[in-house]
Amino acid sequence: MEFKDLSSNWKRLKVTLESEKPPPRRRKASEDLQSHKNGVKRVKATAKSPTREPKPLDDVQNRKMGVFASYLKPVAPSASLALWAEDNDIPAKDLTAAYGTSSGRSSVQVHKHEDKINEGLSSTADAGKYISMDCEMVGVGPSPDTESALARVSIVNYHGDQIYDSFVQPKEAITDYRTFVSGMTPALLRQARTFETVQEDVAALLDDKILIGHSVKNDLEALLLGHPKRNIRDTSRHPKYRQVAGGKTPGLKRLAKQILDINIQGGEHSSIEDARATMLLFRREKDEFEREHQKRWGPSPNTNNSSAADKDRARVTATTKKKKKKKTRKR
After folding, report:
1. What torsion do the CA atoms of 254, 258, 262, 263 make, to the nearest 10 degrees?
2. Residue 26 has what pLDDT?
3. How far, in Å, CA of 285 to CA of 297, rounded?
4. Which end of the chain is more exposed for a tag (fewer CB within 10 A), N or C?
């Protein structure tokens, strides 16, 4: 019906209704709709629309991606890979750039070290003149936090090749395996060699060798063995390395990170990797180590001419000395 055909009353009513109708709602720029080919409409983003900042990788990694995401985060190379690189004249910065994001897997693929856990004496690797030793301990007795016994011995040569690795059966009752640090478990130590067997093996390897270690006195005491002091190079006592800890004894993990830029002891310790890191620290300052050594002991004589008496004084066996319980070695 046309407006002109309405009665006067209807005309007035229509005018009144139209005047009371609310004005159409004005859309904001941020609510403009954009049509897509599939007919779905979405809010069109504009310059004034708030944008959501991407979450940092670390936050996403920690909450959602778990352990796998650690491969995405750059990490320092392992001791094994660092030794391989040094032997092949590869600069540390190039090593980190090439393998820094997946050093764990890369080190297995490219370095020549193949760990053979609990192998005993290697049938293929030569010891050479310089050897590096590291040990793992377990807690024994009523105070396992402070009383320790030998549970594993690892020795590598100058190039980081494994020449000895063995689990050790402690003579005392184990009251704390310290698995989160030592990596030792009841199952592993059921495969262990006797203390006397390991002691004899290590004593033979030490003969006429330059022994590299970190707080190596503790390892020798745990083995009830000695070694001529002039044939020991201890990275925990090197003046330059002690500066890292303000003159105190530096931890091996700290030295490895600050001096070598490698990661060790992230969880359960590997005495093989720790021995390699110690050897790498010695090699990094080898000339300085030898200069300091000569100041204290004078020029090194031919170790093959060492007297039998000197060797006897250096080596202390379980048959001549009771085994002492030692305090936990802090690293």
Report:
1. 30
2. 61
3. 18
4. N
Mean pLDDT in the chain? 74
Region of poorest pLDDT, from 20-29, 50-59, 80-89: 50-59
For residues 115 and 165, the answer to whether their CB atoms sit within 8 Å is yes
List, in order, residues 6 or more apart from 295 with CB less than 8 Å away. none
Nearest to 113 by CA among 70, 74, 148, 165: 165
Helices and strands of the chain, counted as H and E runs: 14, 10
Task: Give one DSSP letter per residue of 37-105, joined into a string.
Answer: TTS-EEEPP-TTS--PPPPPHHHHIIIIIGGGGGGGS--PPPHHHHHHHHHTT--HHHHHHHHTTSHHH
pTM: 0.63
Greater pLDDT, 323 or 247: 247
Q: Residue 136: phi, psi to the nearest 5?
A: -115, 145
**Among residues 153, 312, 277, which one has the least CA distance to residue 222?**
153
Residue type (1 letter), 214: H
